[in-house]
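Hi Y.,

Following your request, here is the sequence exactly as I used it, all 496 residues.
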Amino acid sequence: MIVQMGTSKVYKPWIALVSILALAAPLAASSLPPLTASVPKLFPSVGVQGNSDAALSTVRRQDQVARNAQSVMTRLSPEEHLRRGAIYLANRAFEEAREHWQALISYYPNDPRVAPALLGMARSYFQERRYMEAYSDYDRLAREYPATKDGREALNFSAASLLRLGKTSEAADRYVQYINRFPDGERIDTAHLNAIDTLREADRIQEARSWVTRTRQRFAGTPTATNALFGQLRLEISESNWKQAITTAEELSRDSFQKGVATSPSEVAYLKAYSLERSGRQAQAYSAYLAVPGGIDSYYGWLATDHLASVADGRSRGFAGDRIQIVKAQIDLVSDRYPIPYRQIIINEARARKLDPRFVLALIKQESVFRPQAKSLAGARGLLQLTIDAAQKYAAHAGMASVQENQLYQPETSIRLGSEYLAELTTMFPNLPEAVAASYNGGEDNVARWVRRAKQKDAGVFTSEVGFEETKAYVQKVMNNYRVYQQLYTADLKRK
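Below is the corresponding structure, written out as tokens. Let me know if you'd prefer a different format.
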């Protein structure tokens, strides 16, 4: 999927927060300041960042005195219910967020802010992966408020909910319904791209190809048209249609890789080389792999180097060795950028779960740059940037009776819980660390779909199918880190 709901730790809660705050105040979404400033700017009484620990503590104290003798939330103003719900959502306190939105809906059934409250409810369920409940609220919103932006958003995201529920054909039809009903809708471009990939997942291959053509015609000269062609390249590779894949990759390589394009020249070059190799054109594949730029920051360069050895003949194998030596020299120059803090904790927790400590280090470097007090806009905390809902899910398995938000800043707790999560993901996606990294950032339910959609057992092909721009970039950075740590350290984290 080129674009679904935005994601960070699976689904960016701050996108929902920005939307809800925009609807709760007389500001257009495009005029909103960055999230770190949006809550206090729109609601001066907050006085702190909406996703900060202080803001969360403040609204919890306020809620303690806003309940009646039966512990039911009393009537506040619609704006205040939205404000508190938004702060809870930013901190992934889903039940508390929904309590305020439900209070608004119950106390003010005819208020125009019922629609954004319903949207907040649906998005919170979606972020919590309770897709049936998300679909129910999205569907209600689409039916009851069809003339509003919230209603249009709901129709689009109801398709995303159906997709997560495994109802791929129904999801594809919903995307097409959105396109037909709202030809100038806010998400019309991504709806076209989602239709292509969802039709693929529904095994409606010819329809998917038809939508590639329609999308390229409607959005000619734009990133959306390029992304549609990229969708066709991935489709042809998944169907092992190597001749057409090579032709499509060549056409795509001549396109403009402007901002908004969901692929890169290196990725396209790698996919062309892979298609040449699978089609039996080894000499051409060798040249194509060699053309993929190398270096420690080139994910597809690493993969291309791995493939070179398998397609090279005796005379050309030396070139692959030269690429390896160049990268090793680059790593030596920047080795101080790859430290191993918390070494013994990482070794202990990783060994207990049969994980490679170097992979854990690669994730920590990308997640927090080894800062234990780090906190993201999505409410993720600590070295491994765990959200409280994820931490609570794995606490018992990790030998912890319970866990609170402030404990996630403790290195021992973060590494233990993060390793527990990684162990489960490794079991789900064995021998494919790219899928493990993608799951950590973009959700294992999404990754399972991307693995199925790729069909090919190749790490680079899988990565090309990663449907969130942020997650794809994350995977490549984590894997680059991992490769460097493997070059520098043994599995016991001793310097080679």
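The chain has 25 helices and no strands.

Thanks again,
Q.
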